[in-house]
C-alpha cells in the first residue's frame, strides 16, 4: 500500500498542518488512512506510554489509534542522544520498518510525519532521506519562507531521492514575495525536476498566539485586563527608543505586542493608547497606577517578566515562529489553507490512488 513521507528543509516548517490537511482531505474522499511519526523529538508520557507530543495530537485529530510504541518507535530523549553520540547506537531502522508494515497493512495510504529537517537524525541513522529510501515510499518536502527559500536544498533532495520525491510545498510566503515565486523560483525549480505542489501564503491567524499562552511561554504573569487574555498577538515591537521615534514606528505595526522596560511609562502609555494587543514589561518591574488603570479601561493586558528586553525579544521571535497548531480555529483554518492551495490531483496520481 502507498506511503507518503512529509518532510521539510528545517524544523517548524508546517509539517503538522500539511499532515492534517492531507489526512482529512483523503479521509473525506473515502481513503482508509494510517499515520505514524517514526522519530519523536518531543518526548511525552500518556497513560504510562512514552511517545511524541505531536504524534498523540495528530492521531486525535485524524481519528486514528495505534499504540505509542508503534506510532513512534524511536523517541529522542536525553539518554538516547548520549548513547548515540557515544557510539552505542542500536539499529533503530528495523523497528520503524516493522511498525510501518503493521500500520500500513490494511490501509489505502499511510502518512509518515518527519521530525526536524530531512537530515535530522542522521547521527543515528533515522534521517528522513534514509527512511524514505528504506521504506520505499513517496515524499513531499515543505520549505517555509524564512527571509528566503532553500531552493538549493530542494534541488539536492530531488537529486538524492529521485522519483521518491513527488514535489515540494512552499509555505508561509509573504505577499511581497509571491511575484518572485511565480515568475522566478517556481519555473527554476520545475526546470530542475522539482514539482511545486502548492504555494501557501503567509496567514495572520496561523502566526498568532494568545496573550495567555505568550505569558506562559515567557515565564511571565498577566497583572491586568485578565478578561482579554485570549487576544491574539501577531508580532512584537521593542520600545527602547525615544518616545517620538517609537510613535512613528508603532503607527505602522499596531497589532504588535510591545516589549518595554517596566520603568518606561512614557512608551507604555503610547502603546496602550495605540491599542496594542498587550504590553510585555521586562526586568520584573511593575507599572505605575496610571498605566495599570489605563490598561484595565482599554482592555489591554500587561505581562510582567523577569528577563531583560533583549532576552524577551529573542524568546518572542522563537515563540512566534514555532507556536504550535493546537487551537480548534487554527486547525480548521490550517486545513482550509492546505485544501485550497495544494495540487491534490497530482499527488493522488503519483500515489496511484483511484479515489
From TrEMBL:
This is DRTGG domain-containing protein. PANTHER family: PHOSPHATE ACETYLTRANSFERASE. Gene3D superfamilies: HprK N-terminal domain-like, P-loop containing nucleotide triphosphate hydrolases. It holds the Pfam family DRTGG. It comes from the Bacteria. Residues 213-317 form the DRTGG domain. It comes from Maridesulfovibrio ferrireducens. Homohexamer. Signal peptide: none annotated. InterPro entries: DRTGG, P-loop_NTPase, Phos_Acetyltrans/Butyryltrans, Ser_kin/Pase_Hpr-like_N_sf. SUPFAM superfamilies: HprK N-terminal domain-like, P-loop containing nucleoside triphosphate hydrolases.
Amino acid at each position: 500500500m502507498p506511503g507518503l513521507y512529509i518532510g521539510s528543509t528545517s524544523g517548524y516548517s508546517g509539517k503538522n498542518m500539511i499532515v492534517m490537511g492531507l489526512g482529512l482531505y483523503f479521509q473525506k474522499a473515502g481513503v482508509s488512512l494510517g499515520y505514524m511519526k517514526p522519530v519523536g523529538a518531543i518526548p511525552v508520557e500518556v497513560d504510562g506510554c512514552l511517545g511524541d507530543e505531536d504524534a498523540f495530537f495528530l492521531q486525535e485529530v485524524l481519528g486514528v489509534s495505534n499504540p505509542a510504541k508503534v506510532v513512534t518507535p524511536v523517541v529522542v530523549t536525553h539518554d538516547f542522544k548520549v548513547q548515540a553520540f557515544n557510539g552505542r547506537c542500536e539499529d533503530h531502522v528495523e523497528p520503524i520498518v516493522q511498525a510501518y508494515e503493521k500500520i500500513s497493512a490494511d490501509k489505502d495510504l499511510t502518512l509518515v510525519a518527519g521530525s526536524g529537517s530531512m537530515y535530522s537524525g542522521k547521527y543515528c541513522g533515522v534521517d528522513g532521506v534514509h527512511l524514505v529510501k528504506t521504506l520505499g515510499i513517496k515524499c513531499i518536502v515543505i520549505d517555509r519562507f524564512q527571509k528566503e527559500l532553500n531552493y538549493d536544498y530542494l534541488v539536492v533532495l530531488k537529486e538524492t531521492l529521485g522519483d521518491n520525491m513527488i514535489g515540494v510545498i512552499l509555505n508561509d510566503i509573504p505577499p511581497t514575495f509571491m511575484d518572485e515565486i511565480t515568475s522566478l523560483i517556481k519555473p527554476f525549480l520545475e526546470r530542475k525536476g522539482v514539482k511545486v505542489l502548492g504555494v501557501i501564503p503567509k496567514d495572520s491567524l496561523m502566526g498568532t498566539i494568545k496573550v495567555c499562552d505568550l505569558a506562559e511561554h515567557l515565564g511571565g504573569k498577566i497583572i491586568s485586563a485578565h478578561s482579554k487574555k485570549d487576544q491574539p498577538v501577531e508580532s512584537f515591537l521593542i520600545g527602547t527608543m525615544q518616545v517620538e521615534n517609537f510613535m512613528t514606528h508603532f503607527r505602522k505595526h499596531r497589532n504588535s505586542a510591545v516589549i518595554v522596560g517596566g520603568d518606561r511609562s512614557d512608551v507604555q502609555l503610547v502603546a496602550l493608547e495605540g491599542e496594542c494587543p498587550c504590553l510585555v514589561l521586562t526586568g520584573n518591574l511593575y507599572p505605575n497606577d496610571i498605566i495599570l488603570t489605563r490598561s484595565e479601561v482599554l482592555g489591554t493586558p500587561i505581562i510582567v517578566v523577569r528577563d531583560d528586553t533583549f532576552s524577551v525579544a529573542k524568546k518572542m521571535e522563537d515563540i512566534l515562529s514555532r507556536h504550535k497548531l493546537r487551537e480548534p480555529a487554527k486547525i480548521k483554518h490550517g486545513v482550509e489553507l492546505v485544501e485550497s492551495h495544494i495540487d491534490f490531483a497530482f499527488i493522488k496520481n503519483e500515489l496511484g490512488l483511484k479515489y
